[in-house]
Write a structure and sequence with these properties.
The chain is mostly helical. It has a domain of 89 residues. The protein is 76% helix and 0% strand. It contains five helices and no strands.
Length: 144
């Protein structure tokens, strides 16, 4: 998400930094509300206790959306930097961080770095699961 941050060294002021924070925060809040609402609806419409279908579907929708929007942005220059913050970091980040994961993996592949893509993808899944397991144990969930 190059070029979408608000760094002090870029001539930014406190007001500009606050605007960036608000764009990300409002977008993130809307994305989280969208994820929650869609998840509740999917859970009631497709009751599947043996498979987390709502989360699976939401992750796929997020990946599709980030692919479409980045395609529009890169090929047609559709989004200003504030719009990028709101849409990509905020809205889609609040909806699902999995879309960013998918985009970053694709970017590694497009940059002729299949080893990096494999390590990032595999490492994120493997070490993410390990971290969840450790966190679960630290939180007292592993009590026999």
């Amino acid at each position: 998400m190059e070029g979408t941050t608000c760094k002090r060294g870029e001539g930014g002021t406190k007001l500009r930094a606050m605007k960036c924070l608000l764009l990300v925060g409002i977008g993130g809040g809307l994305g989280a509300l969208g994820r929650y609402g869609l998840g509740v609806w999917l859970a009631s419409a497709f009751h599947t206790p043996r498979f987390p279908f709502p989360t699976f579907f939401i992750n796929l929708v997020g990946c599709l959306l980030i692919g479409i929007l980045y395609g529009l942005h890169f090929h047609h220059g559709q989004f200003t930097k504030p719009a990028q913050l709101f849409i990509f970091t905020g809205l889609l980040g609040g909806f699902t961080t999995f879309s960013t994961f998918g985009w970053e993996t694709l970017t590694l592949l497009q940059n002729a770095n299949p080893r990096g893509a494999f390590l990032y993808c595999g490492g994120s899944v493997l070490f993410g699961l390990v971290a969840v397991g450790i966190g679960y144990a630290l939180g007292g969930g592993a009590k026999g």
